[in-house]
């Protein structure tokens, strides 16, 4: 381990720049693809909103969400993972071969060559994800009772790489993306501008070629809150087999539509 004093200013500048580059375009592109997929899948959007409202009703009823509250948004995390499976921010990754080696498949890789694996292709392979691999289905990430995101084989989902060089910012990325997604979707209803073309631009990061042009409307949470209340009264444990629901938390009548709607309006 190097002594603290031996890090030059230039070295520290590079570390800081690396964090900015690794942590900005990756998360922002993932969010563009996420918001687009959500606009195309109203069923998923409703489940995300139900989950967030349930957590808000049970908790303080106001934004921003706290760390523990964000941690409970399992369906949202599943939807973000599903986004990264289909549209990985880093679509392919290369490794430089330092010394002659043989891969588990028997392929010889000579020193000085490079091995590139396609994260994009791996997310869309039938033999890894099944026949419905091209569908946007956050449910595939959830345990059967819908209460936690299942731990897939670490080398099956490689949007953050895996093993010793796994993304250092993975947990931070989920925290940031969940917080932003929740804040935007609770306040706004997004619709893609008619005629806008959504296309991929292959680069070091998987951009949207023309960005994502959306119309931003106001979100009416009343139908969602009605559903949250209705299921809470019925005492059903989950929504659509996925999302843990609000039980009577002793605040019945005190967490009103008005209280919940006010901070997010
Ligand atoms: C959706 C968001 C993100 C995705 C998809 C992502 C993806 C990746 C991938 C695939 C790698 C491995 C690159 C390689 O093996 O060559 C990586 C490495 C890394 N990421 Fe992320 N990343 C994300 C967000 C972040 C954030 C927010 C930070 C920091 C604030 C960050 C910091 C890093 C660092 C420092 C490495 C290098 C780790 C190493 O080489 O040991 N990433 N990331």
TrEMBL record:
Residues reported in the UniProt entry to bind heme: 167
GO molecular function terms listed in the Swiss-Prot or TrEMBL record: heme binding; iron ion binding; monooxygenase activity; oxidoreductase activity, acting on paired donors, with incorporation or reduction of molecular oxygen
Pfam families named in the record: p450
Example GO biological process: lipid metabolic process
Cofactor: heme
Keywords, ordered alphabetically: Heme, Iron, Metal-binding, Monooxygenase, Oxidoreductase
Gene3D superfamilies attached to this UniProt entry: Cytochrome P450
InterPro entries: Cyt_P450, Cyt_P450_CS, Cyt_P450_E_grp-I, Cyt_P450_sf
Region (Disordered): 246-265
Family: Belongs to the cytochrome P450 family.
Protein name from the UniProt record: Uncharacterized protein
């Amino acid at each position: 381990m190097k002594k603290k004093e031996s890090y030059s200013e230039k070295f520290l500048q590079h570390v800081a720049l690396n964090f900015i580059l690794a942590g900005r375009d990756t998360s922002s592109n993932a969010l563009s693809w996420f918001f687009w997929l959500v606009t195309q899948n109203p069923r998923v959007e409703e489940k995300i909103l139900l989950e967030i409202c349930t957590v808000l009703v049970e908790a303080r009823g106001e934004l921003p969400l706290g760390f523990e509250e964000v941690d409970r948004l399992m369906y949202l995390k599943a939807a973000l993972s599903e986004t990264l499976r289909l549209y990985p921010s880093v679509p392919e990754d290369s490794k430089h071969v330092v010394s002659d080696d043989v891969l588990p498949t028997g392929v010889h890789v000579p020193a000085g060559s490079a091995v590139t694996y396609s994260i994009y292709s791996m997310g869309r392979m039938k033999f890894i994800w099944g026949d419905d691999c091209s569908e946007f289905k956050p449910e595939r990430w959830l345990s059967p009772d819908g209460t936690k995101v299942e731990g897939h084989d670490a080398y099956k989902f490689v949007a953050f790489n895996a093993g010793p060089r796994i993304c250092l910012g993975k947990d931070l990325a989920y925290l940031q993306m969940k917080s932003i997604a929740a804040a935007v979707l609770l306040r706004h209803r997004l619709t893609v501008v008619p005629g806008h073309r959504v296309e991929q631009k292959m680069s070091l990061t998987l951009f949207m070629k023309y960005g994502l042009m959306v119309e931003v409307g106001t979100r009416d949470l009343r139908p969602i809150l009605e559903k949250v209340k209705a299921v809470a009264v019925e005492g059903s444990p989950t929504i659509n087999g996925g999302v843990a629901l609000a039980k009577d938390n002793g605040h019945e009548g005190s967490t009103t539509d008005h209280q919940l709607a006010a901070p997010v309006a």
